[in-house]
């Protein structure tokens, strides 16, 4: 029996290919944001063009490459036939892998046109993007992609502090993140930003809090989520922790970071939908900033009175 494992950033999906006969053979592992859980996943690139962030092991097993457009088109046709047999019409598509916005315009344009033609029911196409991907595309190209249906980008900001970004080898500065997001906003895209609690370690926690709240206020993405930093097996971060070069935060310190970041966010354009529901978080939490800010802070203050000192979050099983 042939099994396909799709390891998302939220949970691992195990699919029995014999049972469902799904026509795509994914180049695993495949990740997608929690909110794309019901999306049809299409790999237009394999791996991540950066692949250096110290805490990330998602694509270390893969060599970055763009897929051939012909191969992608054939995959879309086969999936179209498959969905027709099931009388199913997808509403969302998510382009994988790690920074698929970095793919050439030929690949993105061709893939989006094929999606539009074969799946007219699709209302939204999303993609993971680095700030570099955003900066590398011209304003006109981002507008063209939006016209073709690509309308939401997920950016792993992690922190708004340059010292932290440098230490985790993020590859871009806070200003790059601001400039890249500005281009996307001008082109009419929605942006979902992911920050990481504890990514500055104990040493840079205060700077991380202040600068992350500031950059989120400036960018004011439609969505903002916070994940908890985990020292994942096989990563440089894990080795730094083992050598005592990076001090992980306790559960209480992480919760305090979340509280301080949220309390300092002043959206500069509309409300920000905040979520902290990743599997690496200890507790799910969410709401609209600023509308629900005081409710979220009350909840966090309550948690802070209950969380004992000196306790560290449990590492999810699949990250050990
Ligand atoms: S850019 Fe994203 S996918 Fe690539 S190494 Fe960094 S965290 Fe991982």
What does this structure look like?
- The protein is α/β, with parallel strands linked by helices and 320 residues long.
- It has a single domain, classed as tm_1862 like domain (pyruvate-formate lyase- activating enzyme, Alpha-Beta Horseshoe), CATH 3.80.30.20.
- Helix content is 38%, strand content 19%.
- The chain contains 11 helices and 12 strands.
- The chain has helices at 17-20, 69-86, 105-118, 131-136, 139-147, 162-167, 174-186, 205-219, 236-242, 251-264, 293-306, and strands at residues 3-7, 12-16, 40-43, 45-46, 65-66, 92-96, 124-129, 150-158, 190-197, 223-228, 272-275, 286-289.
- Strands 3-6-7-8-9-10-11-12 form an 8-stranded mixed beta sheet. It has a two-stranded antiparallel sheet with strand order 1-2.
- Strand 6 (92-96), helix 3 (105-118) and strand 7 form a beta-alpha-beta unit.
- Helix 2 (69-86) runs parallel beside helix 3 and helix 10 runs antiparallel to helix 11 (293-306).
- The two termini are 27 Å apart.
- The structure holds iron/sulfur cluster.
- Iron/sulfur cluster binds at residues 48, 50-53, 56, 58-59, 98-99, 130, 156.
